[in-house]
Amino acid sequence: MTVGEPADARRSSAVQQPAAENQTTITEPAPVDAKTRRPWHAFATPLIGKAVRKAARLVHSGGSAFPGKIAETIDPGFLARTLGQLPLGVVLVSGTNGKTTTTRMVASVLENLGLKVFTNPTGSNFTRGVVSALLDRVTLGGRLDADIAVLELDEAYAVHFVRQVKPRYCLLLNVMRDQLDRFGEIDNTARLLSSVAEATTGTVVLNREDPRIAALADVVPATASVRYFGLDASLRSFFPSDDDMATTVSLPGLGTAAEHMESGQASAAASDGSGVVAGKGGRSCPDGDSDAGGHTPEALPADVTLMAVGDHQATFRIDGTDLTTPVRLEGVYNLYNAAAALAVVRAVLADIRRDAIGTTRAKSTGSPDSDASAARMTSVAQSDTDALMAALSTVTPAFGRGESIDVNGSMVELLLVKNPMGFRLSLASFPPEGHDTMICINDEYADGRDMSWLWDVDFTSLRSTGVAMISGVRAWDMALRLEYDQVPVAEVDTDLDKAVERFVTANPGTPKHIYCTYTAMLAVRARLGRMTEVADAGVGR
Question: Which of 531, 529, 530 is nearest to 400 (CA)?
Answer without folding.
Answer: 529
